[in-house]
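Structural prep section.
Before we set up the soaks we want a predicted structure of the protein with 4-hydroxy-3-methoxybenzaldehyde in place, mainly to decide which crystallisation condition to try first. Input record follows.
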Amino acid sequence: MGTPIPPPIPTTAPPADVQEPQERSQFPDTRIFKGFYAPSRIEADVYDLEIEGRIPPELSGAFYRNSADTQYAPRFADDNYINGDGMIHMVRFDHGHADLRTRYVRTQRFLLERQARKALFGAYRNPYTADPSVRAVDDGNANTSVVWHAGRLLALKEAALPYELDPVTLETKGVFDFDGQIPGRTFTAHPKLDPRTGEMIAFAYNTSGRPDKEIHLYEISAEGKVTRTQSFEVPYSAMVHDWLVTREHFVFVLSPMIADAERMKTEAQYFMWDPERSTHVAVVPREEGVSGIRWFSSDLVMETHTVNAWSSGDTLVADHFVTTSGWYSQFPKTTVGPLREAPSFLHRWTFDLTAGAAHWDDARDTYASEKLVEVPGEMPRVDPRVLMERNRHAWLGAVQPNEPLCEWGPMGPPFNSIVHRDDHTGEQTYWAPGEQAACEEPVFVPKSAEAGEGEGYLLVMVGRRDQNRNDLVVLDALDVAAGPVATVKIPFRLRDGFHGTWVPGTELER
Ligand code: V55
Ligand code: FE
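Run finished without errors. Recording the tokens verbatim:
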């Protein structure tokens, strides 16, 4: 835990050499702030949503998901989508009924801006671009995912600590620092929950609150006690969004989306793709810990989201989405000028763990890579009860060439299908929502605690462009092609979100 937490940025810091910040009363005229992708900003309670079909009675609990719903017109017209304020969408299922609640997370940033009635914070993660009055204030916007652990509902953003929410009212309880048990200022939006032990396994990067070259690893018991904290060094300050966890290993794919503490004083954009640097893979053995880290080399790619991974003897298998490009839709400037963003495809990387080097500079050995799905995709899910072990079923959002496709969104082409992939048979089936509609991340809900892997439902948010509103669709997870068993009709538009989860009713009643 070497990197000290730096002092606040002085309010006299020179503003970044970027556009003049502007006060505006309207959102900029850019793709992400217009039409179906415009902020919604609606906090609502809608009881007894209209339902087409019949909600399976065993579906009892709450679906939560997070989104970035920019509260005030941004200071910079080129503001990116992931800089928006965390807005939670909850659909509570109870005996065939469904109720909706949407609430902003009351972050410090949200509250200060609401008080000022305008944007005060600036470009994504760059305090030098903020109004001088808030340069020293944490800019966490809690907008990326929502998880349930140790009886707490947490809204996560990798740039800051979690915020705890009331799971029923969605009221914000405040910043959650694990009761002081973790040393840094940040926490991943992709912790993994061990289905056998109930542990939360997590990491954090840029924990000093600034670009740095350290990653923290945390193991947190089912009761919320941090049982192990470790850290290791990485070659550069990369964006580390998702990762892979098996029963025996933690895997990080580090790609050159790089932040630089000096550069951010003069340039607004926090991450910049540097194709002259390499992609590195770190495998940390869980039991031995970071002293047993092994490094592998890789072609220049970036992992976007992970499906699952498992270890078997000296072999480690990692299923994840990778792209040959950086994330230019959010961070368009690269060190070599304009580049084209490439779509992500599902790949299986198989590692021989006897290879690998103790330092990234010595890494020669690589892995075998296989493309598992031919069409572009992202936002995968497995049955959470098989995470860290070999899974049979996986679901993902995908772009089918022969289905209608909506206008490009804030993060590329919207998904025109949900794919189910069966790893035993290799079979892939899909459901498509049709014209003027796009799917978001599927969330899996088992039919019962005893049900076999994949026996359950998928909850899929569908944006209906032609009706300016959303549906939450319930699919039979093992028969997605059959189409919705039920469609929960949301009477207004929710801004496209990121990640969600399901919490069983029995847990909420405790
Ligand atoms: C991601 C999302 C973020 C973020 C960094 O999906 C990476 C990747 C929604 O916020 O801050
Ligand atoms: Fe993510």
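Observations: The CA atoms of residues 184 and 207 lie 5 Å apart.
Flagged for discussion at group meeting.
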